[in-house]
Write a structure and sequence with these properties.
mainly alpha; 2 strands; 63% helix; 4 helices; two-stranded antiparallel sheet; single chain
């Protein structure tokens, strides 16, 4: 239980402290490790793509050349310069309310 609460706080507070770009890149980096377990170095996986426009969509961009396609799309959607403010606010609300709900259910 303590591990779960600590993990959720680390993951979600990261968005608020470091900003969306670094928070999303950290989250995608966690999936990079799991998704690449057991794969050969240059294996081509259909669900993996490269970061678009040379962005840093994962903290492990220098380690892995491809990342989960949903992670790249998630990063592009919320970190793009053309992202509407209301979309960013909705993501922050989603993160905050999910964190509160998780804590209320587990504490």
């Amino acid at each position: 239980l303590r591990f779960s609460v600590g993990l959720i706080l680390i993951l979600n507070i990261r968005y608020l402290v470091e900003g969306l770009d670094n928070g999303i890149a950290f989250f995608v980096g966690i999936y990079d490790v799991v998704d690449h377990l057991g794969l050969e170095t240059n294996a081509q996986v259909k669900a993996h793509v490269e970061c678009t426009n040379n962005t840093k969509c994962s903290i492990l961009k220098d380690v892995y050349s491809t990342h989960p396609s949903w992670g790249v799309a998630f990063y592009d959607r919320f970190v793009s310069k053309t992202t509407p403010l209301n979309q960013t606010v909705r993501l922050y609300c989603h993160i905050i309310f999910n964190t509160i709900a998780f804590l209320l259910l587990h504490v």
